[in-house]
Design goal:
heterodimer, A: 534 residues, mainly alpha, Cytochrome C Oxidase, Chain A, two-stranded antiparallel ribbon, 2 strands, B: 218 residues, Four Helix Bundle (Hemerythrin (Met), subunit A), elongated
């Protein structure tokens, strides 16, 4: 399909030169790369805090820091990883790069808005880090009242940072929804769109519906702290549980802002590396939308022990189990896609396999926590910590890495070293399980989360976990090195190294030209018809 | 970028759109989505209002008497009228009458300014009377003064956030005015006017909910 002359034209990477051509670019591909670099930087910062936390927990009591600093460290780790890494994560970086290409569009609907949302992200990140100058926050990333209105430190600054970052997220969501609605290539009906787009689309819906509620909640929190307005402060007639309701009304859907794009990437990886049309296209597409809808109905499961009525608890518990259905639909459809396909275990597929294993564990332990009576026992223990790390890191981040390795040849025009790629997956999966599986055990035995001190009986688990975290950290570093090394030493990538069937592979070079395509691509078939690729 | 070369007969088509219709439709969809997020932003405050009104119905009834219904009503009329003039500005663009676009935008801006001036007098009165949120509440004439601050906390947040939107709206209107003065709008191209108008209507609609909820409690 791709004629040779495509490769002769200058790619989007070389068509314009100089630092200003990057800083003021309106090209969705360059903006995607700027996001990717920023997100990876903050991933390393957040990861560094994680390692410090694990080192502190090597022994009970003071190891390297005091209790107060420990609280600040886990708050920074959580806030950075949630607001600066995983929430923007896949949509802002890979989504920005891939979505217009897969749609056959020249750009997103609002390129200037796109650049603006990147700079809002940067400002939010700077504000977040500047909270360190005022005094690091020790509330945890959830900013629960009344503690967050009484503790000292830069709570206002950190909360404003989350507020600003929310804006960036909203603008990205608005941009993607408009792009999907209005810029699809001729012939590309909704059910000819690649599933990656369905996932990003569902994510964008949650982004624009949930984030404003977080924005107003955080604004109220700031005002509560500054002027003592009496909405959340019980001393002034306010209701601290109202904060939890508001907060989780956003932050539970936000959990799906994090995982849906991961699932979206996995759908692409599984079908491409099985070289088989995806099994159950429509159920997978609809299940993304179903997850987006259900995500708004389950927030109360964070508050089973916050004085919510038993009836409400039961309803939220029942609704929570509903999430398992569309998630299960996806898992089984992916498995069925691989059945009798020509599965190749290339690096991106290995990341997807890692996702399979870890997300299954993360998802099923979520069902434990959604069970009312079990949650009373497990609430606020390491079991919860392990559960959401299995979903967020084992699920989303594995998929993110898989997506980066999958689209890397398209983004950079270089192939990475396959052996190094395989080793990075192995290191990460081993390190991850070593770090977090033991946390299920100690959590079930009653080790509370967010404690820097513990009983002697938990020491062995904590030490295994700390050793695992070093392996995990090394694994992620190794993957990033693998990618960076390829920039200099990698072989030149062909337009379609994976024999994939979507537009970004079949209709343009690696890396693409500035306006993506020489000719407007036209969609005449579904996105996964591998036998029809020339 | 291309702004300088636009004339009345010229639609500034961006490179990534196939035709003007696509660009107009995308712009409108984007604006509607953004407006939805704005409504959700205020939604949080409306929920807070509902909860505290439910908790203290008598208190809300008593405290709201300290708001000036007359000034609130005048402001409602002023905003409603400004919504009309925004529509007239778009209409003028469709008829290619630049001076009418400018005139209507100026009237809209004057209305917005009037709204803020009246709001300023209302706020000053509250400040002097000590009808303020939380710790700053010092008024002793309100029934159950130890809790009345909750109502004023909600009052100031809702009207304050709305006021901020009026200010942002004025910036948008001013930008539209500058572009209109340059003659950039005409029957071929008035999309920014429509989008700015949509935003201004939202500011108006939110006030239409705020006014009865805060000033006319029964």
């Amino acid at each position: 399909m791709v004629a040779n002359h495509l490769e002769e034209e200058e790619s989007y990477l070389t068509s314009k030169k100089g630092i200003a051509s990057w800083l003021f670019t309106l090209d969705h591909k360059r903006i995607g790369i700027m996001y990717l670099a920023s997100i990876m930087f903050f991933f390393l910062v957040g990861g560094l805090f994680a390692i410090l936390l694990r080192v502190e927990l090597w022994t009970a009591g003071d190891t390297i820091v005091k209790a107060k600093q420990y609280n600040q460290l886990f708050t920074l780790h959580g806030a950075i990883m949630v607001f600066l890494v995983i929430i923007p994560g896949i949509p802002a970086s890979l989504g920005n790069f891939v979505l217009p290409l897969q749609l056959g569009a020249k750009d997103v609907a609002f390129p200037r808005l796109n650049l603006m949302s990147y700079y809002i992200y940067v400002i939010g990140a700077i504000v977040a880090l500047s909270s360190l100058l005022v005094g690091a926050v020790d509330t945890g990333w959830t900013f629960y009242t009344p503690y967050s209105i009484t503790t000292d430190g830069g709570v206002v600054v950190m909360v404003m940072a989350a507020f600003i970052l929310g804006f960036s997220s909203i603008l990205t969501g608005v941009n993607f929804i408009s792009t999907v609605h209005k810029l699809r290539a001729p012939g590309m009906t909704w059910f000819r769109m690649p599933l990656f787009i369905w996932g990003i689309y569902a994510t964008a819906i949650i982004q624009i519906m949930a984030t404003p509620v977080l924005a107003i909640t955080l604004l109220l929190l700031v005002i509560e702290r500054v002027v003592k307005v009496g909405i959340f402060d019980p001393q002034l007639g306010g209701d601290p549980v109202l904060f939890q309701h508001f907060f989780w009304f956003y932050s539970h859907p936000a959990v799906y802002i994090m995982i849906l794009p991961g699932m979206a990437v996995i759908s692409e990886l599984i079908t491409t590396f099985s070289q088989k049309r995806i099994f159950g296209y429509k159920p997978i597409a609809y299940s993304s939308i179903a997850i987006a809808i259900i995500s708004f109905l389950v927030w109360g499961h964070h508050m089973f022990v916050s004085g919510q009525s038993e009836l409400v608890g039961m309803i939220f518990s029942a609704l929570t189990f509903l999430v398992a259905i569309p998630s299960g639909v996806k898992m089984f459809n992916w498995a069925a896609t691989m059945y009798q396909g020509s599965v190749s275990l290339a690096t991106p597929m290995l990341w997807a396999m890692g996702f399979f294993l870890l997300f299954a564990i993360g998802g099923l332990t979520g069902c434990f926590l959604g069970t009312l009576s079990v949650d009373v026992h497990l609430h606020d223990t390491y079991f919860v910590v392990a559960h959401f790390h299995y979903v967020m890191v084992g699920g989303t981040f594995m998929a993110f890495m898989g997506g980066i390795f999958y689209w890397w040849p398209k983004i950079t025009g270089k192939m990475y070293n396959e052996k190094m790629g395989v080793w990075s997956v192995i290191l990460v999966v081993l390190g991850f399980n070593l770090t977090f599986f033991v946390q299920f055990i100690m959590g079930a035995q009653g080790m509370p989360r967010r404690y820097y001190h513990y009983l002697d009986q938990f020491q062995i688990y904590h030490q295994i976990s700390t050793v695992g975290s070093f392996l995990l950290g090394f694994g992620f570093l190794f993957s990033i090195i693998t990618l960076l090394v390829s920039l200099k030493y990698g072989k030149k990538a062909p337009p379609n190294p994976w024999h994939a069937a979507t537009f970004e592979w079949t209709e343009t070079a690696s890396p693409p030209i500035e306006h993506n395509f020489h000719h407007q691509p036209i969609s005449t078939k579904g996105p996964y018809e591998y036998d029809q690729i020339a | 970028m291309v702004a300088n070369q636009i004339t009345k007969s010229h639609f500034p088509l961006a490179v990534h759109f196939a035709n003007p219709e696509q660009q107009v439709e995308a712009g409108k969809l984007g604006m509607w989505l953004f407006l939805a997020t704005e409504i959700l932003l205020f939604g949080g405050l409306f929920v807070a209002y509902a909860i505290f009104h439910h908790l203290h119905p008598e208190l809300f009834k008593a405290a709201h008497r300290f708001l000036d219904v007359k000034l609130g009503a005048i402001n409602t009329v002023v905003l409603l009228f400004s919504s009309l003039t925004v529509v007239l500005a778009i209409h003028a663009a469709q008829k290619n009458k630049t001076h009418l676009i400018v005139l209507n935008l100026v009237i809209t801006l004057v209305c917005a300014g009037t709204f803020l001036v009246i709001k300023y007098f209302e706020y000053t009165h509250k400040f002097h009377a000590g009808l303020l949120p939380g710790y700053f509440f010092t008024n002793a004439t309100v029934p159950s003064p130890d809790q009345a601050h909750v109502f004023f906390g909600i009052y100031f947040m809702m009207t304050g956030l709305h006021g901020l939107h009026v200010v942002i709206g004025m910036i948008v209107l001013l930008w539209l005015l500058v572009r209109a003065l340059k003659g950039q709008f005409g029957e071929q191209y008035y999309l920014p006017l429509e989008l700015g108008g949509l935003y201004w209507h939202l500011v108006d609609v939110i006030w239409i909910f705020l006014f009865p909820l805060l000033y006319l409690i029964r």
